Amino acid sequence: MALALKGPWGKTEIDAYLQHSTFPLRLACVGEDGFPRVVSVWYIFDGEYFRCVSHRSSQLIRLLERSDRVGFELAPNEPPYHGVRGQGIARLSSAADGEVLREMLQRYLGGTDSKLGSWLLSRVEDEILITIEPLRLFTWDYRERMAGSDPA
């Protein structure tokens, strides 16, 4: 299926935003009860796919094993509001080589030498790689509209 884009940004602008933003990706899955679950995860975007990791026993992996359809959002929490939302398909595979995890530790923590980094790498054989293929991307950008506005 071809990637569908909607909103003020083109593919080049979207790719740059996704590659340089370090906000966690808000990933939505459907629970067994039919209600959505939203999980914030670190990610890497390579221009085509999002890559995330999660522990083999996590609720997120169980949800993705049941249904590979996901929604996602990448945006700051504070104004002026802008970002990317989308829908896609998640595929699961082993992350035992730790490459994506090391990339994310570098991106989000500045390296692998922290206590958290060491702990995560010590469990890498139990990590699952989540590869998300975006099918639809929706952008919004209220920065110009909100420039100079005082929310108080």
Notes on the protein architecture:
The structure is a single chain. Helices cover 27% and strands 38% of the residues. The chain is an alpha+beta fold and 152 residues long. Strands 1, 2, 3, 4, 5, 6, 7 and 8 form an eight-stranded mixed β-sheet that branches. The model has no long low-confidence stretch (mean pLDDT 92).
Describe the structure in brief.
The chain is α+β, with helices and mostly antiparallel strands and 152 residues long.
Question: What features would you highlight for this structure?
Answer:
single chain; 152 residues; alpha+beta; eight-stranded mixed beta sheet
- Strand content range: 35-45%
Average of the residue pLDDT scores:
92
Total helix count? 5
Rg over alpha carbons: 16 Å
Sheet with the most strands? 8 strands, mixed
- What is the end-to-end distance? 45 Å
Q: Uncertain runs with pLDDT below 50, 5 residues or more?
A: none
Order of helices and strands: EHEEEEHEEHHEH
The portion of residues assigned to helices is 25-40%
Sheet/helix structural class: alpha+beta
Question: How many E-type strands?
Answer: 8
Q: Give the overall shape, derived from the CA principal axes.
A: globular
Layout of helices and strands:
Blueprint: E1 4-6, H1 11-20, E2 25-30, E3 36-41, E4 44-45, E5 50-55, H2 59-66, E6 69-74, E7 82-94, H3 99-109, H4 115-122, E8 127-141, H5 143-146
Parallel strand pairs: 1-8
Antiparallel strand pairs: 2-3, 2-6, 4-5, 5-8, 6-7, 7-8
